[in-house]
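Board notes, transcribed. Complex of a protein with phosphoric acid mono(formamide)ester.
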Amino acid sequence: MAVMFRGNSLKDISWNEFQALRPAEKAPMLTSGGHPYHILFSQQFDREFLNRIITLATMTRRIAKTRGGLLYLQGLLAEKRAMLYFVQPSTRTFLSFFSACEMVGLKPGEVRGTSTSSELKGESPEDTVRTFSSYFDLIVMRHPEAGFAERIAWLLSTTERPIPVVNAGSGKDQHPTQALLDIYTLQRSFEEVGGIEGKTVVFVGDLARGRTVRSLSRLLALYPGVRLVFAAPPSLQIGDDILAELREAGVPVQLTDDFHATIPEADAIYMTRLQDEWDIAGESQKIDLRRFSFGVEHLPLLKPNAALLHPLPRRGEIAVEVDHDPRAVYWRQVRNGMWIRAALMLMIFHRDAEIDRYYEDLTS
Ligand code: CP
C-alpha cells in the first residue's frame, strides 16, 4: 500500500516517508511547475520528457553553431550559479556539466574532492552541501554513496534556501544524466531507421556495478519492442532488482556469458569497463574479460546500421582501432553529454520555451 503524505512536495514529507515510496510515487515531488527540478534517478523520466529533452538538445546544438546564437545562449542563465560537487573521480561528466554551464551562461563553481573542503576537518557532507546552497542556485553532485543525492534534495527542501539537486553519478546505483545522453545518442543513431523502438540492445561487461547500465536499461523499457541482452561473466551479471523491473515492464530480457555470439543480432552494443574500484580485495581483477571485449575482428559481424556505445572511460574492452568505424559512437556520446546537460539545466530553470521561440525565428 502506498505511503500517505500530506502534499506533493518534498518539504511536506519526512525523510523516512519519502524513502519508503516507490520511484513512481517520488517522481511528482521532484518537479516544479510541470518542469523537472531535482534529477535523481532515471525512473522519474517518461517518454514525453525524453522526447522534449532530445528536441531541446538538438535545437540548442544548432543555435550554438553561430556566434550570435552562442551569445544568445550565454545570456539565458547569466544570473544563476551552479556548484559542481564531485567527490568521486570524473572526466566527462564534470567537464560536460562545466561546458554546458558556460554554454547557457551559468557560472560554475567546483569542489572536486573532500581533501579541499572542510570535510577534511570533519564537517559532514550534509553540512557541506547545505553551505553550497547559500551561494549557488543549483548543485550537481557525484558521490560514492547510493541515494546521497536523494537525501540532499530532501534535506535542502527543509531549509530556507531550497535549490535543485542533479545526481551526476551515485555509488553503484544511478547515473541519470548519462542515461539521458545515451538515449539522445541512440535516438540520433537510429533516426533514419525507425528510432529506438524495436531495437535489440546488448549490454556488456561489469553490469553488476555499472550505474550507467542500471539507469539506461530502465529508460529503454519506455520504448515499445526493445529487447535487452545482458552479456557478462556470472559474477558481474546485472542485478535481480533491475531484471524484476524490466520483466514487470514486459521487456524481453536475455542473460548470457557469450558476448561475441550476440554481436550479429545487436542493433546497439553498450560496452562497459571493469569497475574494480569497488573491490574489497581486488577479487574481480582475476576475472578474464577478454571474452567481453570488442576488437576490429568483430566489426564484420556488426549490422550495417548498428551503434557501438561506451560511457567511457575504457580500459581496453574496445580496441582503439575500432574508433574509426562510423558505427563507433562513443566519442559522439561524449559531445552529446554537453548538449543534453545544457538542455536539462534550461528545463530546470524554465528557460526552455525561449529556445523554442529563438529556434523558430532562426528556421522560419
Ligand atoms: N561516463 C562517465 O561518467 O564518465 P566520467 O566518470 O569520466 O564522468
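The mean pLDDT is 94. The pocket of phosphoric acid mono(formamide)ester is lined by residues 90-94, 169, 178, 311-313 (CB under 6 Å).
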